[in-house]
Amino acid sequence: MTKKTAGRQRIDTTKLIEDRARRQVTFSKRRPTIFADAGDLSACFGVDTAVVVFSERGWAFAFGSPSVDAVFRRHKDDGREPLPGDVALDLGDLAARRRELWDAEALAAAEKERLKAIGEKVKLVVAEAGRAGWWEADAGALGEAELPEFERALRKLREAVRCLVNKKAAPPAADAPA
Questions:
Q1: For residues 20 and 56, what is the distance between their CA atoms, to the nearest angstrom?
Q2: Between the CA of residue 170 and those of 8, 74, 163, 165, 166, what are the distances in Å?
Q3: 110 has a pLDDT exceeding 80
Q4: What is this structure's pTM?
């Protein structure tokens, strides 16, 4: 069986594509890739990037991080204020936000462990009393840390039961006349 297409081949990017239509298609396909690469450079290395590409018709296509204007103004050094919304990437601020995120993740993990320990304690109290469900736990056997969570869980259970009862007690909807 012979191949029907030439497949993916390396293209010599140093010579001009002679066919105008093929050149336009190639430009349209490669432009987003160039912009994506510039965005990756900005994100990975914390640098400002600006790319401006002009088509054969003279149309300008631009990408900038944080924005093209912010990058050009800073490097032009004309003393003008940045445009609204232009924020230069401050690596110190980025590091501080990353630390805040890690701290929040650590707090969330600690809270998850605390709630897991409370659940285990409630299960233990229920098992010792020989009861069937967690809601039958002896509140007197629970500690100060477990009581607020136990109360919150009981309220949630009561609300769920109330909703089920209301759903069952509601009369069936009458069929609409045709």
A1: 10
A2: 66, 68, 11, 8, 6
A3: yes
A4: 0.39
